[in-house]
Specification:
Number of strands: 17
Bound molecules: 6-O-phosphono-beta-D-glucopyranose
Helix content: 25-40%
Radius of gyration: 24 Å
Number of helices: 14
Number of domains: 2
Structural class: alpha/beta
Strand content: 15-25%
CATH class of the largest domain: Alpha Beta
Length: about 500
């Protein structure tokens, strides 16, 4: 299925300035020579430049301890783009882009280094016309957030949001804490120096094109929303499957696990968009209010619920894509007796009028057979009469599947007659695939930070509501003597996950 007709530009472009009217801005990347900057941020900024989606007056300043200067930082950026950009480097664009890049060497806890940064930014304002507007991107471990926010404050580099055109914004990455208490503490520390309207908390799933499209799908079409209730929907499955193992991130992952790393953030954020009521408007806080309502309506997990409806697992050795894969406990920097879960499957309920009685099943894991993220909405069956009257072979129910990645798109699964004289019925899929490559999540998010649109960023209350939900699960696992069941790398997780579904007379979708 193709895209038809000319795209409709929304009135006011949803509050975003038109291309070419982006505000001037100096983007300072704390951890400017780190892995996130190399893998995601610099490639995303380069792609924005290719699309003319950076301000005419923009500068990018790396700030970290590495021994780099402007020239070697440009080489670092070029390498980042050559390795990680979705589009190849183009010399003409690179020349313009590289001029925007500079580097300040500094320690996060050294007042003098903030003074150097401040002096450099004043020079940048003169040279690039960035008008004192600042985005401070904290691409750093959470432990440094407070140090950096305080350093900026002491150097008088944070302007209050006063609405007179100048802005200071701060960007923080997940994980925001490892529990409700620690996340509240981090949020308090950020709030000591920045107003909520200046804080952009990244959950990069929200920047994925298909996730952003969920609201359009629901609220720009007449055919889905009337069915989007417990009256017509049987259950919902949300899967984020990864083929990769923990890779080089064990130091972090050993303190996190799949529940904190994926469920607390990405899966609950996706769930909140699927479950939300139509927001009052497309303004950031209307949308975020509606999402928060969902998180706050999810039934808290009792001990018994955790026992019955939350399954964890850890990958053992196996075969992934035909190649042997090590067990999690044999990965570099993983404790040989680690109890960290690399897989979670759970069932939850949104206790509101719309969703009463509809189970939401969530699953995510590393070292599963393939990389595939998908939302599947299962509709209720038609009555067991007419075409569904055969007691031995029931018709499959209708389903809407939304593929977040890869192969972004959606399919409506319906029953259709197989052509011919006999009455043979079959499920067929009406498919929509994006025909162009979609921008990387970080491109969308960086552009929104520069233009000041907080819609796709996690508000403090929603981060804390998510921790509130998962905290009892974390505590219960910590107290349990049981180890997470082991599943073979390359399988769909532990048997317990399938059994939980089977107990409800359902099965996980085969992806
Ligand atoms: C990150 C997690 O937030 O998301 C990783 O920390 C995970 O563990 C990653 O691999 C998945 O993101 P994506 O965009 O590659 O699906």
């Amino acid at each position: 299925m193709a895209m038809n007709g000319e795209p409709i530009v929304l009135p006011g472009n949803l509050g975003k300035p038109a291309k070419g009217a982006y505000p001037p801005c100096a983007l300072v990347i704390f951890g400017g020579a780190g892995a996130l900057t190399h893998r995601k941020l610099l490639p995303a900024l380069y792609n924005l430049a290719l699309d003319g989606d950076l301000p005419d007056h923009a500068a990018i300043v790396g700030f970290s301890m590495e021994e780099l200067n402007d020239e070697s930082y440009r080489n670092f950026a070029r390498d980042a783009i050559e390795r990680n950009s979705r589009r190849p480097i183009c010399e003409a664009q690179w020349t313009g882009f590289s001029r925007m890049l500079s580097f300040v060497r500094g320690r996060f806890n050294e007042a003098a280094d903030y003074q150097s940064l401040r002096g450099h930014l004043e020079y940048v304002d003169n040279e690039f016309g960035t008008s004192g507007n600042r985005v401070y991107y904290f691409a750093i471990p959470p432990a440094f957030i407070e140090t950096c926010a305080t350093g900026l404050h002491r150097a008088d580099m944070i302007r209050p949001p006063n609405g007179n055109g100048n802005f200071t914004r701060v960007v923080v990455e997940k994980p925001i804490g490892h529990s409700l208490a620690s996340s509240t503490a981090i949020n308090d520390r950020i709030a000591a120096h920045f107003a909520e309207s200046q804080i952009f908390r990244i959950d990069h799933f929200l920047g994925k094109e298909t996730v952003e499209n969920l609201m359009v799908l629901r609220f720009a079409n007449a055919i889905f929303e009337p069915l989007w209730t417990s009256r017509f929907i049987d259950h919902v499955q949300i899967t984020v499957a990864e083929e990769e193992g923990v890779g080089t991130r064990a130091a972090y992952y050993e303190t996190a696990g799949a529940l904190r790393d994926m469920v607390q953030s990405h899966l609950l954020q996706v769930l909140s968009i699927i479950g939300m009521e139509p927001p009052r408007s497309t303004a950031a806080d209307s949308v975020r209010d509606a999402k928060l309502d969902v998180l706050q309506s999810i039934r808290p997990f009792s001990d018994e619920d955790i026992e019955k409806y939350v399954v964890r697992g850890q990958y053992g050795a196996g075969l992934v894509g035909g190649a042997p894969a090590r067990a999690y406990r044999d990965e570099d920097n993983v404790a040989p007796d680690s109890r960290v879960e690399t897989f979670v499957a759970l069932k939850c309920w949104i206790d509101n009028w719309r969703w009463a009685g509809v189970p939401f099943y969530l699953r995510t894991g590393k070292r599963l057979p393939k990389r595939a993220s998908e939302i599947a909405i299962y509709f209720k069956s038609v009555p067991r009469i007419l075409y569904n009257a055969n007691p031995r072979a029931h018709l499959a129910s209708n389903m809407l599947t939304i593929r977040i990645q890869p192969d972004e798109g959606l399919s409506v699964h319906i029953i259709s007659k197989v052509p011919g004289p006999q009455a043979r019925l079959q499920q067929v899929a009406v498919d929509f695939h994006y025909q162009t490559t979609t921008p990387e999540a970080y491109e969308t998010l960086l552009r929104d930070i520069i233009v000041g649109d907080q819609t796709l960023f996690m508000r403090r209350d929603s981060v804390e509501a998510s921790w509130q939900l998962v905290d009892p699960i974390i505590e219960s696992w910590a107290q349990s003597p049981a180890e997470p069941p082991v599943y073979s790398a390359g399988s769909w997780g532990p048997l317990e996950a399938a059994l939980m579904m089977a107990a409800d007379g359902r099965s996980w979708r085969v992806l």
